Amino acid sequence: MTVKLSNDQIAWRAAQDITDGAYVNLGIGFPEKVAQYQPPGRQAIFHTENGILDFGESPAKGEEDWDLINAGKRAVTLKPGASFFHHADSFAMVRGGHLDVAILGAYEVAENGDLANWSTGPKGVPAVGGAMDLVHGAKRIAVITDHVTKDGRPKLVERCSLPLTGVGCVTRVYTSLAVVDIEGGRFVLKEKLPALSLEDLQAATGATLVVAGPVADLIVPEL
Amino acid sequence: MDKTVADLATVVAGIEDGMTVMIGGFGGAGAPIELIHALIDRFRTTGHPKDLTIVNNNAGNGHVGLAALIEHGMVKKLVCSFPRSADPVVFTERYLAGRIELELVPQGTLAERIRAGGAGIPAFYTPTGYGTLLAEGKPIAEFDGRAYVQERWLKADVALVKAETADTHGNLTFRAASRNFNPLMCMASRHAVVQARRVVPAGAIDPEVVVTPGIFVQAVVEVADPQQEEDLNRANAVYPGEA
Question: Known SMART domains for this protein (chain A) (predicted)?
Fold first, then answer.
């Protein structure tokens, strides 16, 4: 399979579903890209666990203020209307249902909405950060990910084999091949790359893709 | 009332072997580097304190601050959410060699456990971690049809905290995202020690902007030009460096 979206294109697609004024947490790393692709005229307010609402892009090199960082410990700037708060308030925003969307990366997502994204097993130093908190509380928990692992194994599976981050928490998955919702313990296909047959998509997926209603073409600009 | 202490050595003198010490900061933001280094200085001259349990979001970066505290062998156990960093070699080597204990706690649970410790709430229920390895062995209860994990408060003998401005009563303000765990740790410790960029007379901070009220603070020391972990690490600094 040669046709697939780049990480930037997956991030672009995820950004199209964020409404104006939404409060959004983007996981560190790949999900941070989503902020770059907000549609014109819409402005989301980004939350970072370490205590900022409404932060913006990184400053120029040499202009960093190391008291002004995001959860990935990257220097950021503030937008007009930003606010600071301590960690307990920050996670009250998370668990208390105040965020509209959290967008996270994944090692595996299961058809029952389980997510594994913090540990690849017992080796090395375990680190969880805010991932287990973020999967609870936001109104939508979306995952952005390649459809398969680097060695070609499906990341959308019947049941996760890696240690879980959260149970039954994911509501939508944006992959390099498709957009899939999790509804009633099933993967429901919403969009797929037009060049890709349903059979080929199913073959790259580790659980049944249910077609219930129209499947739109997943069309993303060159980026 | 005056909670000001003249120097760093005096302000960390009461920290003893085996104590639980909360250290504020998230990455370098809000990390009380000078207080940590004062504690290392005391260890280098007296051999104490050691066998400390440290509560911090991370496990240090490079060879300064918390990483240097670990590198000196002063830490028995770390309670944290994310023991990784750009240069986590000090913690990683000790952990993989079985020379330091780790209690891994989800970040929001860590914050709430500290808050609960300061607020007199011995346990609480959270959705975080339900059904995961980090909830194993913990009581589970259902509320309104959803399962929650019981987590316990976290308290400390001492907190080491960095603030922007303190007054002589211990009222504090913080700068930008350096607030993070610092106000919570003041609440949850019996003895909160604060380094502030500026110490001002009582009345010089507008009560409307006080973030941490002085009741949660026991000692204040002025560090007018604090070092920042990120700058030290960019310069490959090692504490205490060449003698």
Answer: CoA_trans
